[in-house]
């Protein structure tokens, strides 16, 4: 089937059809990846994304996966295109995770596969998947060290590796990149669980191949010319939607200049000035005034900044369109060199992807007066053991990673949501049954943190409380924000509560907690470990994490009806997770 279509006047039915067909490709890739992976991170927490890219590397369509992945993967695809040129052939699959090459942080490994036309043998699309792997080496299990000061401490960095060359899987090369190279850095280990990582990478390769099969099916149905025409129509549709949004902002606010600033917990500013040209529907988004590159790991690569911006633009659109590269066409994003949003080649970045990105989103939404601040954090918890031994030889080990929900910010006509992953994360927490079965931990409590959301005419969502006991000694790390600066409210609304991380330590003689002949009770010690810490916790120690709430919108009035509405709207608990989903699916038959 072929159609002759005007570039700016596509058939609206075909436009919707192709948008959904392209999105269904990404959704099918995601289902394949989840079903064939084995790690908790990908199979249970769903910390992965799949997407479809144009021959020039621009994002075409995606399923609703992880926003921080989707906006930055285009940078990774374009980097590999520039590196390989026309040297790619059928059966080649590329692997990368370097922030210098379009990556976000090192645990997020991207697998890229070119899609070749069956007749001309030209590249007509790319399929790509990005997954967060629980351990890729570095100085601490989980590869998210709160104390890292350079990228070498965060694990294996891969600028470009042809993991499949002409259909042949290069396992020796994978082991070199994942085990040998990172362990050369003093104090660092290679990947502590290469079995899981290798298996999940193969699952990503298979997911990409699924996408290729589905793309070829669409081309067979409609012809390559029509398919690519509507690929560009969809991108143009997104571009015009954002241009209209920018014009509406000027009309509603009465100004074409927007400003906002917020701060990381250490005081580093993230500043934004937006200058909108209403006649063109374009905008300059200038981050001048943002703080310098940091010695720690809250530096955010440029690709992450673009991810946060494209997410905000898509979120403010009241239209059902795929998130794609067209959303960025009307925007001129300017990032000051040597800032924490444009760090140097060897800067530590593991926290920038998960924490600084949240603050960028808060700043953009604040500038557009769209919503109060959400928790502004992902509360990254890692723990594990093993790695490279003192003699330099690798020993068996493991690592676990999770992000913990909080409260979302309220808006001009809605309450914030309690206990959710906000903005650029969109992952879920692992099932407690799987957590306790696979790892030596016990979950003592996990629930909403009542009263932590900001108070206002529209309330902020509550954070959560999560307490784990460790059943054997292990290294435990927390990487978090909003521990010293509250999530702000808007229009007079109150801020959300600060987060807090507490080590509940059992008394031990070897730590001097139990002096001889002491009559003092053997009580536990509650130790505030701050927002970023790594601690060796002994058997029976617990970690209590209280996550931030979201900011409120509007002044709270004593006779406000929204208070009653808020109580009525609070959802009742219902089981969620893979076990609940499986039970629900079985009950449907």
UniProtKB/TrEMBL annotation:
Coiled coil: none annotated. Residues 507-528, 557-589 are annotated as: Disordered. It holds the Pfam family Hydantoinase_B. Residues 516-527 have a biased composition (Polar residues). Residues 11-554 form the Hydantoinase B/oxoprolinase domain. InterPro entries: Hydantoinase_B (IPR003692), Oxoprolinase-like (IPR045079). Residues 567-589 have a biased composition (Basic and acidic residues). PANTHER family: 5-OXOPROLINASE, 5-OXOPROLINASE RELATED. This is Hydantoinase B/oxoprolinase. It comes from Lentinula boryana.
